[in-house]
Amino acid sequence: MHNLSVYQWPLPEGKNGQQAVEILQKRVEQLGATKTGTFCVDCETYQSSLGPNAPTKNVFLVHNTEHPATTFAVLESGLVLVADSLLDIFMLKLNGAYNLKKNANIESKGQRYEQMDFVIKIGSVSIGPSFKGILVEVEYQPCDIPASCFDLMREFMQGFIGPSVQLPPQLVAAKIAEPYTPKDTVQQYLDHFNSLRRTTAAGPPTRMQ
Amino acid sequence: MSLGNTGLLNQDPVHDRAPLYGQLLHTYKWSDKLHEYAGVASSILSSNTLKRSTTMSSIATKRLRRPGPTIHAVPQHNVDSLVSSLALLFPQEMTVQLIRPMGSSAILKITLGQTLRAVVVLRSLIIEWVVVKAISEDHHVDDHKPETVWSSSRYKVFQKVTDHANSAMLHFYSPNMPELAVKSFMTWFRSYNTLFSHPCQRCGRLLSDNLPPTWRDFRNTTAYHENCRQ
């Protein structure tokens, strides 16, 4: 797997989500990146209902279009189960023990770009119809070890995100000398989703793309 | 333009049917250029001190001519001992594994830290082929999948490093001192351990054309971008 960082991009003042995404897309295209389709990372939340007195626990099911045949199930403790996509059907069978939380589906959806060995994904995050924020994902494919190539990625990202990118994301920084895995990507997205859920919509509610 | 008497050819009334004079001029220019390039190449090559082949100048040396280099037919155990000494050169950073999937030719699988992997094909003690790939790419070389030796990496950065490794292979090539050539190549190649983290010596940046400094100097292994090395 390759080294990857996800950042939240704050909306510029006076712009709504759609306009902000367009600004970012324009910058990336001016750098010479080519469009290579769309991507989507979505997250469903299942809540345990083991009894009236038992504490409720969440299981997050994350799908990523980079791994179309895989479902990632993440516990609140951070434990990740990487499974076949049949896990979705299995979770429906567990109805009663784990119930799908209504109106909690959150997804990051948008354009995927490639430039040499870099992959850039600009996603707008939304829960149902309401827009929550923008997530920018940058991946450097040839290198697995964040410690070796983060300086290089920072130089690349500063080209279109700006000088605000200085440090690797917290999760990457914690395991900077270890090889990066797809599980780390899922956890980065989940962390962002959880913090974006808590925030109110940053701009007027507009459904992106 | 007229070339002496050959200018008369131009007067030939059947010029349209046999454009001899045009072809003659073309040939003349071509041979003139060849002469000029050969002159430049000769002055560059004569300044290179490391001779790749021995030239016998006098008749006396001709009589005492040594048998030509036979490094293409070195016994296997010599290759084995060279490879085992290579593995000890940089035990921390480089691991070297020797396999012989296709007869007696040795293939070296080199892993450089956590940065890259390379496949080096040896013909006795001469390096014949180098391919550099990412750690995550397939390197399983055997009889059933020989294409992994010949296919190039899917990443631009390693395609570039492969090109540079091939030029280094030619640079270090020395039939009279084959072991030294292989060792020099390995010492040079080790400098790619810091491929993603070492900034360019000239511009001080990590990225140029969205690639890290892929060139390493042959003498002192300092890192340069391909465009910065002049």
UniProtKB/TrEMBL annotation, chain A:
Keyword Transcription regulation: yes
Keyword terms, alphabetized: Activator, Nucleus, Transcription, Transcription regulation
Taxonomy, superkingdom: Eukaryota
Compartmental location: Nucleus
Protein family: Belongs to the Mediator complex subunit 20 family.
Function: Component of the Mediator complex, a coactivator involved in the regulated transcription of nearly all RNA polymerase II-dependent genes. Mediator functions as a bridge to convey information from gene-specific regulatory proteins to the basal RNA polymerase II transcription machinery. Mediator is recruited to promoters by direct interactions with regulatory proteins and serves as a scaffold for the assembly of a functional preinitiation complex with RNA polymerase II and the general transcription factors.
Assembly notes: Component of the Mediator complex.
Record-given protein name: Mediator of RNA polymerase II transcription subunit 20
Species this chain originates from: Priapulus caudatus
Automatic annotation (TrEMBL), chain B:
Domain of life of the native organism: Eukaryota
Alphabetized InterPro entries for the sequence: Mediator_Med27
UniProt keyword list: Nucleus, Transcription, Transcription regulation
Keyword Nucleus: yes
Pfam families for this protein: Med27 (PF11571)
TM ranges: none
Compartments where located: Nucleus
The keyword Secreted is annotated on this UniProt entry: no
Family: Belongs to the Mediator complex subunit 27 family.
Record-given protein name: Mediator of RNA polymerase II transcription subunit 27-A-like
